[in-house]
Write a structure and sequence with these properties.
By secondary structure, the chain is of the alpha/beta class. The chain has helices spanning 2-34, 48-64, 86-105, 121-130, 146-155, 201-205, 213-225, 251-259, 279-287, 304-309, 316-329, 348-361, 388-410, and strands spanning 39-44, 67-68, 76-81, 110-115, 136-138, 160-162, 183-187, 189-190, 209-210, 230-234, 266-270, 294-296, 334-341, 365-370, 417-425, 432-437, 442-446, 455-464, 467-472. The structure holds S-adenosyl-L-homocysteine, iron/sulfur cluster and FE3-S4 cluster.
């Protein structure tokens, strides 16, 4: 069974390679017309999974002959969209208006849309009706066919739309253009089967599919050879990795294999669902020299009643017990979370429960979101939607506690020397570099840009709320 899947995957890869060559011809012709190399811009909305998909798009565009730029007045612009909350969609529409005016000035400009938002029928209808200047639309399931779709776009004289409901296909080894040479995300699974009642992701990303461990390990080995020192394993619920493989394997087992890869110095992962977090995983994290001291453990709500309506499948007490166990086993770990305020039926007393969890767990950071009604999800049909002013009141109350706790937690490292991976130069202040600690906290410190990509010891001199100002620690 697996060999057949693999075979079709291989065949598809060869087909797509052929399409890249054909796309190259079109880009070459355009370059002659323009008298310069055509540019392209990939703009990402949404999560790390989308960011990784964008690197795949960029890899193909670069192979086809485009020069990558971050400037949206490029010859080819693609928006990789997100639909997890309505404000993500609104941002896309706003930016599309701007692209339209650019295209009026440069009629040869091509505009493409892809990603999660495109998996919604209503969105496609709206774009076809009101944004006719878009040249290509595709979704999350056929992204591996991007080269083929590019060719179709060059050959068509009207909008090309190609959306699939779902797929079980995973195509390996297509080109990727990484944003950073020294760190990279890597998909270990796609889709989600959890159907939290507020969430649209399972509808736009399809059913859960894990990649074969050998494909993952080989890709990481290749990255390490190319200079990557930090990998982030990506999935909507990494704790359920491997359950549907022909030879089932746990996420903790996969981590053990990744740990063995020479050259990889740091391992991160995103996201962990509390209901599936095993004791085995805690042990692997505890014993590991490479897994970072950071766990993102989305809470969503601290009220058992609301958690039940959200279909999260854990109670407040179970979550607290889990957090306590993790803290006991790995005391230096930073725990971060996601919280939603304003889920249907939520009352101020439920927000109090959430605040109670925040105080008890002591998060290093919490992303707080106002509930957004997503068409087609069970929560959207619930009658007891919360009035805006009540949501706002709860949100502000929660935010204050989250910020106070995070400030306290982050400041605990003041005066220590910690290793930081230097990620770049600070955009705001000249002469400062930006590094990331194992526990995900940011530190800015004076230093030479040649240190970018290296892991260096930094003295954490002063905590400024959510980040540090430090200095390089000279090894004795
Ligand atoms: N798979 C991840 C989350 C992906 S979405 C997980 O389960 O942890 C990222 C975050 O967006 C979620 O954790 C949730 O807090 C938030 N979110 C998802 N749907 C939302 C909605 N309808 N309204 C507001 N926030 C939402
Ligand atoms: Fe959405 Fe829940 Fe799946 Fe996360 S686990 S992507 S919140 S349905
Ligand atoms: Fe958004 Fe899709 Fe990620 S909806 S959060 S980009 S999986």
């Amino acid at each position: 069974m697996r060999t057949t899947e693999k075979y079709t995957g291989e065949q598809e890869k060869i087909r797509q390679e052929g399409c890249i060559e054909r796309a190259e011809e079109y880009v070459k012709a355009l370059s002659i017309r323009l008298g310069r190399r055509p540019t392209c811009c990939v703009t990402t909305f949404g999560c790390q999974m989308n960011a990784r998909d964008s690197e795949k798009l960029a890899g193909i565009l670069e192979r086809a002959g485009y020069e990558l730029t971050e400037d949206e007045s490029a010859d080819f612009v693609i928006f990789n969209t997100c639909t997890v909350r309505d404000n993500a969609n609104q941002r896309v529409y706003g930016r599309l208006g701007h692209l339209n005016s650019l295209k009026k000035k440069n009629p040869h400009m091509k505009i493409a849309l892809c990603g999660c938002m495109m998996q919604e029928k209503a969105v496609i209808e709206k774009i076809q009706k009101s944004y006719g200047f878009v040249d290509l639309i595709f979704g999350t399931h056929n992204i591996y066919k991007f080269a083929e779709l590019l060719v179709r776009m060059f050959e068509a004289d009207r909008m090309v739309v190609d959306i699939w409901e779902d797929t079980d296909q995973i195509v390996e080894n297509l080109p990727v253009e990484r944003k950073y040479p020294f760190k990279s995300g890597i998909n270990i699974m796609f889709g989600c089967n959890n159907f939290c009642s507020y969430c649209i992701v399972p509808y736009v990303r399809g059913r859960e599919r894990s990649r074969n461990p050998e494909d993952i390990i080989n890709e990481i080995k290749k990255m390490a050879e190319e200079g990557v020192v930090e990998v982030m394993l990506l999935g909507q619920n990494v704790n359920s990795y491997g359950k549907n493989l022909a030879a089932p394997m746990s996420f903790a087992q996969l981590l053990r294999e990744v740990e063995k890869i020479d050259g990889i110095k740091r391992i991160r992962f995103m996201t962990s669902h509390p209901k599936d977090l095993s004791d085995e995983l805690i042990q692997v994290m505890k014993e590991s020299k490479k897994i970072c001291r950071h766990l993102h453990l989305p809470l969503q709500s601290g009220s058992t009643r609301i958690l039940k309506a959200m279909n999260r499948r854990y109670t407040k007490e179970q979550y607290l017990a889990l957090a306590e166990k993790i803290r006991k086993e790995i005391p230096d770990i930073a725990i971060t979370t996601d919280i939603i305020v304003g889920f249907p039926g939520e009352e101020p007393a439920d927000v109090d429960e959430t605040i109670d969890v925040v105080k008890k767990v002591q998060y290093d950071n919490a992303f707080t979101f106002i509930y957004s009604k997503r068409t087609g999800t069970p929560a959207a049909a619930m009658e007891n939607q919360v009035p805006e002013e009540v949501v706002k009141e709860g949100f502000d109350r929660l935010l204050k506690v989250v910020q106070d706790t995070a400030r306290q937690r982050v400041s605990l490292l003041e005066g220590q020397v910690q290793e930081a991976l230097v990620e770049g130069v600070n955009q705001q202040e000249r002469g400062l570099l930006t590094g990331r600690l194992s526990n995900n906290t940011i530190v800015h410190f004076p230093g030479d840009a040649r240190l970018i990509g290296q892991i260096v010891p930094v003295y954490l001199e002063q905590c400024h709320g959510f980040y540090y100002i430090g200095k390089l620690h000279e090894r004795p």
